[in-house]
C-alpha cells in the first residue's frame, strides 16, 4: 500500500539517526557525510522555510494544471461545475502518485498536491450535496486516511483527525437539541476510545513507518478529550448551539462536573506523563493547566490582571526553582540534566567505534609518546646510550 520503496524509508530512518548522533557529538561530520553518501534516501526537505517555498511552487503548478483543464471544460457550464472539483481532486491524487514514484516525500511539492486534492475533494462533495457537512467530513476523512496510508503524510493524518471530529459533531447535530446537549459527553467518550485504540496499535505496530502518524493522532485525542468537557468550551457552545442564556445566579447543567473536569484532567495528564515519561503528554498537561486557569479567570476575575500575573510568575518561579534543586543531581528517570544524546562525552569513543566498525571506517589515530626517539648512533638502535 505504501507508495515508497521500503528500503529507502529504512535508509531515511538510518540517516535521521546518524544526524541525531552527529548533533550529540557521537560521530564526526565526515562520518555523517559518509553515511548519507552510502545510503540513498528519499527527496525530502527538513528546512521548514524551504519546504514552504516548494509548497507555494507546487501550488502554482497545481493551479496551472487545473486552470488549463478549465479552459477546455468551461463550455460545459453546469455539468463542468458539478464534476470540475472531482477532476481537480483526481489531478491532485495523480500528481501525488507521480511525485511519490520520483521519491518526493515531505518535500513541499508533494504537500501541495496532497492537500490540494483533499481540498478539491471537499469542495466537490460540498457542491454535489449542497453543503451537507456530515457527508463532506466523511469523504474528506476517507481521502485523508488514504493519503496517510499511501504516502505517510503527517498533515493528512491531522486532516483525518479534524474531519472525523467534524463528522462526529455534525452527526450529533442530526439528533437536534438532544444530540447537541450530549455532544460534550459523546466527544469525551470518542476521544478516550480512540486514544487507547491508537495506543494499542502503536504498541503492536509491525511497520514503524506509521508510528509518527499514530503518535500525532494520539496527541490529538488528548487535546480533544480535554476540550470536550472544558467548562469554558461547554458553556460557550451551549450558548451558540442551544441558545442557553446563563443569567446571574444560575449556571449550565452539570456545571460542577465540568468544573471538576477542567481542573482534574490537567493533573491526571501531568501525573501520567511523569509516570510514563511521556513528553508530549507532559507539555499538553502544562498547556491544559494554563487554559484551566484562563477558563476560571474568564468568568471570575478575583484579582486585577497585573496582580494575578505577578503572583502567577512568583508561583511558577518557585516551582521551577525547587524542581531544579530536587532533580539536578538525579541521573535517571525524571531529571534536570540534559539528554545524553545531545550532551554526552561518556560514550563518544564507544559510539564512534561502533559506527566505524559497521561502515568499515578507519579513524585517524595519532600516538603521543613521552619518550623521544631518533637520535641513535647505531644502525636501528634508536639511542645513544642514555635516556
Helix vs. strand class: mainly alpha
What is the count of helical runs? 15
Oligomer: single chain
Q: Beta fraction of the residues?
A: under 5%
Radius of gyration: 29 Å
Topology pattern, helix = H, strand = E: HHHHHHHHHHHHHHH
Q: Which shape, going by the Cα principal axes? A: flat
Helical fraction equals: over 70%
Largest sheet: none
Q: Termini, distance in Å? A: 74 Å
Instruction: Provide the residue-averaged pLDDT.
Output: 80
Low-confidence region ranges: 342-371, 377-383
Total strand segments: 0
General description of the model:
The chain has 15 helices and no strands. With 387 residues, the protein is mostly helical. α7 packs parallel to α10 and α12 runs antiparallel to α13. The longest helix has 26 residues. It is flat. Keywords: Membrane, Transmembrane, Transmembrane helix. This is DUF2157 domain-containing protein.
Q: Quick gist of this model?
A:
The chain has helices at residues 6-23, 29-38, 48-73, 78-101, 109-129, 133-151, 154-173, 176-181, 183-203, 211-228, 231-242, 255-276, 279-299, 305-327, 348-359.
Amino acid at each position: 500500500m505504501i507508495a515508497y520503496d521500503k528500503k529507502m524509508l529504512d535508509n531515511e530512518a538510518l540517516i535521521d539517526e546518524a544526524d541525531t548522533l552527529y548533533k550529540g557529538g557521537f560521530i564526526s561530520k565526515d562520518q555523517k557525510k559518509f553515511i548519507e553518501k552510502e545510503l540513498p534516501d528519499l527527496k525530502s526537505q527538513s528546512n521548514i522555510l524551504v519546504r514552504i517555498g516548494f509548497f507555494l511552487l507546487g501550488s502554482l503548478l497545481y493551479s496551472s494544471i487545473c486552470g488549463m483543464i478549465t479552459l477546455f471544460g468551461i463550455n460545459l457550464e453546469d455539468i463542468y461545475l458539478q464534476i470540475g472539483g472531482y477532476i481537480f481532486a483526481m489531478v491532485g491524487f495523480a500528481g501525488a502518485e507521480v511525485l511519490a514514484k520520483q521519491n518526493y516525500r515531505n518535500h513541499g511539492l508533494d504537500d501541495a498536491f496532497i492537500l490540494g486534492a483533499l481540498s478539491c475533494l471537499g469542495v466537490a462533495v460540498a457542491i454535489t450535496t449542497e453543503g451537507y457537512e456530515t457527508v463532506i467530513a466523511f469523504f474528506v476523512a476517507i481521502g485523508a486516511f488514504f493519503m496517510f496510508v499511501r504516502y505517510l503524510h503527517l498533515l493528512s493524518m491531522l486532516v483525518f483527525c479534524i474531519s472525523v471530529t467534524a463528522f462526529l459533531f455534525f452527526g450529533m447535530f442530526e439528533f437536534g437539541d438532544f444530540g447537541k446537549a450530549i455532544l460534550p459527553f459523546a466527544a469525551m467518550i470518542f476521544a478516550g476510545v480512540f486514544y487507547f485504540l491508537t495506543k494499542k496499535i502503536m504498541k503492536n505496530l509491525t511497520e514503524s513507518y506509521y508510528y509518527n502518524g499514530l503518535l500525532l493522532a494520539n496527541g490529538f485525542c488528548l487535546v480533544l478529550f480535554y476540550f470536550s468537557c472544558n467548562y469554558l468550551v461547554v458553556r460557550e457552545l451551549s450558548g451558540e448551539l442551544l441558545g442557553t442564556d446563563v443569567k446571574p445566579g444560575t449556571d449550565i447543567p452539570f456545571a460542577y462536573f465540568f468544573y471538576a473536569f477542567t481542573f482534574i484532567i490537567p493533573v491526571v495528564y501531568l501525573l501520567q506523563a511523569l509516570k510514563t515519561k511521556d513528553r508530549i503528554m507532559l507539555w499538553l498537561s502544562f498547556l491544559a493547566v494554563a487554559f484551566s486557569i484562563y477558563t476560571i479567570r474568564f468568568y471570575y476575575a478575583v484579582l486585577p490582571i497585573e496582580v494575578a500575573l505577578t503572583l502567577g510568575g512568583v508561583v511558577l518561579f518557585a516551582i521551577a526553582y525547587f524542581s531544579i534543586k530536587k532533580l539536578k543531581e538525579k541521573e535517571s528517570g525524571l531529571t534536570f540534566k540534559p539528554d545524553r544524546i545531545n550532551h554526552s562525552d561518556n560514550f563518544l569513543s564507544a559510539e564512534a567505534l561502533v559506527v566505524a566498525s559497521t561502515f568499515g571506517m578507519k579513524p585517524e589515530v595519532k600516538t603521543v609518546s613521552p619518550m623521544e626517539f631518533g637520535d641513535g648512533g647505531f644502525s636501528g638502535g634508536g639511542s645513544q646510550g642514555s635516556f
